[in-house]
């Protein structure tokens, strides 16, 4: 553990559960990396991801975006390809794009979007895109005929969340350079969305633990019971 991280951890009470705004203020006050770090939320939910009726996943438009520029690849042809390009897609193609990914290892994108008719080609890329979490999926809005809107929303900060095998949601709520109000608003937007997505079979306490951290910094425990300011 480096000297800087030790100094940062010394300013955090490991036994205390901070209010969300306090945690964000504390993280922003710590001397961090030379680049603009992301602020991450890690939410442990009382769910069993092995059960289909307790899988928590979806998409969310953060009110203040993530501060991160995401590169979007779109599988489309004809008018839909032009629509994607006009919306700001970084790369657009069909079988040619699938061949670049499969044969040349092209992976210069963060999100893939496809029109339904393109899934015949995209489906063959499952072994490549699947493990990286890049496979277009109707549930996340990335298999759609409205490719222009999908690209615009992704560029504006639409995020996808999905509980991992341990029951934890990992999400970016902005950059350290964001003002406190913007980060607080994004945090509560994520919390409210997860509450909305609560599986019906889950009983008792839903939010087990919540921590906030920066890319290179220590984590801060957040009181999971705080629903709003």
UniProtKB/TrEMBL annotation:
InterPro entries: Ribosom_uL1_bac-type, Ribosomal_uL1, Ribosomal_uL1-like, Ribosomal_uL1/biogenesis, Ribosomal_uL1_3-a/b-sand, Ribosomal_uL1_CS
Record flagged with keyword Cytoplasm: no
Any single GO BP term: regulation of translation
Any one GO cellular component localisation term in the record: large ribosomal subunit
GO molecular function terms noted in the UniProt entry: rRNA binding; structural constituent of ribosome; tRNA binding
UniProtKB keywords: Repressor, Ribonucleoprotein, Ribosomal protein, RNA-binding, rRNA-binding, Translation regulation, tRNA-binding
Domain of life: Bacteria
Subunit structure comment from the entry: Part of the 50S ribosomal subunit.
HAMAP family documented for this protein: Ribosomal_uL1_B (MF_01318_B)
Family designation: Belongs to the universal ribosomal protein uL1 family.
Entry function: Binds directly to 23S rRNA. The L1 stalk is quite mobile in the ribosome, and is involved in E site tRNA release. Protein L1 is also a translational repressor protein, it controls the translation of the L11 operon by binding to its mRNA.
Protein name (Swiss-Prot/TrEMBL): Large ribosomal subunit protein uL1
Gene that encodes it: rplA
């Amino acid at each position: 553990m480096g000297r800087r991280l030790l100094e940062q951890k010394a300013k955090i009470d490991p036994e205390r559960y901070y209010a969300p705004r306090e945690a964000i203020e504390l993280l922003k006050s710590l001397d961090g990396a030379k680049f603009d770090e992301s602020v991450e939320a890690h939410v442990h939910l009382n769910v069993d991801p092995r059960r289909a009726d307790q899988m928590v996943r979806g998409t969310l438009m953060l009110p203040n975006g993530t501060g991160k520029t995401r590169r979007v690849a779109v599988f489309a042809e004809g008018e839909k390809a032009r629509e994607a390009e006009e919306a700001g897609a970084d790369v657009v193609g069909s079988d040619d794009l699938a061949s670049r990914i499969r044969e040349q290892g092209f992976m210069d994108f963060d999100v893939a979007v496809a029109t339904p008719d393109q899934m015949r080609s995209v489906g063959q890329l499952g072994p490549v895109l699947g493990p990286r979490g890049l496979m277009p999926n109707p549930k996340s809005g990335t298999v759609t005929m409205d490719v222009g809107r999908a690209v615009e929303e992704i560029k504006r900060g639409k995020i996808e969340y999905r509980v991992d095998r341990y029951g934890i949601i990992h999400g970016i709520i902005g950059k350290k350079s964001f003002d406190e109000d913007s980060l607080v608003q994004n945090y509560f937007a994520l919390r409210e969305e997860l509450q909305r997505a609560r599986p019906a079979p889950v009983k008792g306490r839903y939010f087990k633990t919540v921590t906030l951290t920066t890319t290179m910094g220590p984590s801060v425990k957040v009181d999971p019971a705080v629903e709003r300011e």
